[in-house]
Amino acid sequence: MTNDREDAVSESEDLVAPAALAQLPVRARLEAVLIAADHPIETVALAAAVEAPVHEVEQTLAELRADYDGPPVRGFDLRRIAGGWQLYVRAGYEPVVRRMIEDQAPPRLSQAALETLSVIAYKQPISRGQIASIRAVNVDSVVRTLLARGLIAEAYVDEQTQATFFETTNLLLSHLGIDSLDDLPPISDLLPEDPEDDDLS
Question: Which of 30, 38, 69, 155 is the most buried (most CB within 10 A)?
Answer without folding.
Answer: 30
